[in-house]
Amino acid sequence: LFLAAMDGISSSFEEAVKKMSDVLAVTGKVLPVTLDNVRLCAELDDGFVICGESKIGDHNSFHAGKIKRVYLEPQNATPLKDALDTIAEADVIILGPGSLYTSIIPNLLVDGICDAIKASKAVKIYVCNVMTQPGETDGYSMSDHIEYLEEHTFKGIVDYCIVNTASIPDELKKRYAADGAEAVKVDMEQMSNSGIKVMGSDFLSIKNDLIRHDPDKLAKAIISLVAETILAKDKKRTIDYYYIKDRLKKLAG
Fold this sequence. Notes:
- By secondary structure, the protein is an alpha/beta fold.
- The protein folds into two domains: 1-30, no CATH class; 31-213, 3-Layer(aba) Sandwich (Rossmann fold).
- Helix 1 (2-8) packs across helix 2 and helix 10 (215-229) packs antiparallel against helix 11 (238-252).
- Helix content is 40%, strand content 17%.
- The N and C termini lie far apart (41 Å).
- It is built from eleven helices and nine strands.
């Protein structure tokens, strides 16, 4: 609603995003992947088509079925140049956590985005959701998330998959099960020939009976990975490497 309000008083959606970032004091830069007016659609296994992000997530209430694919209308959306440039300059590209079919994949369907990711020398990381999402990823395992991500994009879109391996309290499992969600199965054996390195650890955060990723644990893991895979191999960034290693050591202490 806030973004919609900003869009109403801005000359473009891009400007609206920038204004929102300023008002909310967002650290970093938020960019839309396209300024085109696009609509997200999903095709189910039986061929039934649903259009609209909110309807896709709620489709089991009026037409049950497994999502076969999602796509954009129109399918030739123009990518934002700033988004392409940012991908090209990135040290790390992180996909997730978030709704697989209504948050992560749609951004990758815009023309040129996957090509930019493929051409990038950045470390590519997928952060797998802790829980399945009713109406989208019912019964999905870790490898299922990767499989359908690659089906919509390209094989090898990520180098690493970060996944939570900490146990979830039984009582909380029951509460989530009542809503149709369950813990994403960490099927390491299915990932053995994928070429993707799996980083499993305790990334769990439970607050007010809500299961989430712990942002601090997740950030430390990603920063440490970038330090070892990018900074440690670049002699021009040796100072950056040791600075980050020192910061991580202090945070761990």
